[in-house]
Amino acid sequence: MNKYYLAAPILYTLYSILYTLVPTVHAQTLLSPNYKIRMGNFNITSGLKSSASYSLTDTVGQTAAEYFSSTGYHVKAGFQYIYTLYDFSFSVSSLAVTLPTTPNTFSTDSHTLTVSAPGQGYSVSTFETSKLTKSGGSDTIPDTTCDSGPCTETSATVWTTPTNNGFGYNLTGNDISADFISSSYFRPFPDNSLGETPATIMSTTSAGKNRTATVTYKVSPSGSQAAGKYSNQIVYIATPTY
Amino acid sequence: MKKILPILYTLYSILYTFVPSANAQSANFSVSPPVVELLLAPNSTVTQTFIIKNDGADAAYSLSFHKVIPTDDLGHSTIDPAPYSFVNAPVSAKLIGKDSDTLYPFPAGKTEAIQVELSSATVDEAVDQYFALVVSLQNPTDLSGVTKLSSQIAALILTTTTPVPAIPTDITIEDFNPPRVHDSLFPLQISPRLVNNAPVMLRVKGKLELTSPNNKLLETINIDPILVLSDTSRQLPQLSLTTNISPLFSRIGPHSLKLTIQTDGGRTLIESEKVFWFLPLRLMIIITALILIKIAWKIHTFRSLTNADKKAHS
User: Fold this and answer.
1) ipTM of the prediction
2) Taking the model in full, what pTM does it have?
């Protein structure tokens, strides 16, 4: 019998073992038009400290005691704190969203969010000041619960059926939360009037420039929704990492 | 037709040039510095200046202070929408020359200096307080019947107020668990976590050292300075070792992995050392399997010859 006939299954098993046990190597992109490598350590002098359980926050040979005796404070915003050296910028491509309200029909509108954080990572969170409310009245369009799931302020699910009425948003692009799997996944906004906590929608620990995400709003009012113009206020907050 | 086309083209160009864009106003602004760490003695005052710049269209801005709430151990935080109350707080903040929640014009391209006066109260022991100056940009146009968007940037103000220059430290290392046996052929990746149990934040740096069985230092990875807020933990960036060690077979046997965490000034706060084995596991599996194949083939050949002999003699 051909000797290779016996060796083949064994070699296949070996290959499978190798393929299974070899860890996946993810290359870390260090060079990119959108990223900068953070600078390394600065040399800080060290000195004899007074106690095993206490630390003096000294920089460049001076001690906190010296700062206190002369000025009473020490502001750590100088050269050794590289994340303080760069502007942290945030842009929203539109400050207004127009959504026609046709019963049991989806209406959408989009805009982009762009963050530049050359010195550190960042996060963007969002909330609505209240539900969509009729101008001059108190009727509201509820926040979406999507098709099934349901979706929550921190967990997006599919929302493609217009008769599942409500108001929500989707995100695509850089550094977005992982639950926005595709353009069909939506979340409702946290409602600040109900004390709900702002939801994080973009975040990263990497420094970068022009990190952009597209927000798509979607609304579908019910057939019994009172006619009129509905609006609210959506707030986006960009926060640097510390 | 030949005469009409250029006229139509000219008309189209005129229309395209003069019809205003229907795009809603956008917002694009920046703040510097985005994070300030402040160490204060009691009953002292300092003024911190923040520079804001409008890189977009004409807008209006307002200023307010809000609480900063850490959300994970990667340095992210969220801003409490409610205005921050400085009543009984160790540090109070006040805008100089501006009022909170008042809209100020912010023309396109303008840069403004926002001065914040920070004053510390009397404290008996070291205490931290984290809040943010939030700059909100709004469309100055009064829009009704449409959903308005407000874009905000938070500049973090992280403070420690201490009656004595010495700051208490209580930091522990978690998730520093290299495997007992690791394959020599592949990088060793670990991601330990630092837990700050003290009432004040601490900026630390560190290093990770890999030592061979005969106490030779094989590799050192320096850990960049990292801030750990009080009563929180901070994940160190994933550290990957053995990527530059050669020759390959120096990675066999018991090795030592030592993590040292130091203050910004270089004093060692805590160390942790773990011993693990480097073995060429996958190579050993392959060699063993090849030996077994060889043995199996020898047995198969022997049996085939034996059967052939039997048939020949029968």
Assistant:
1) 0.82
2) 0.78
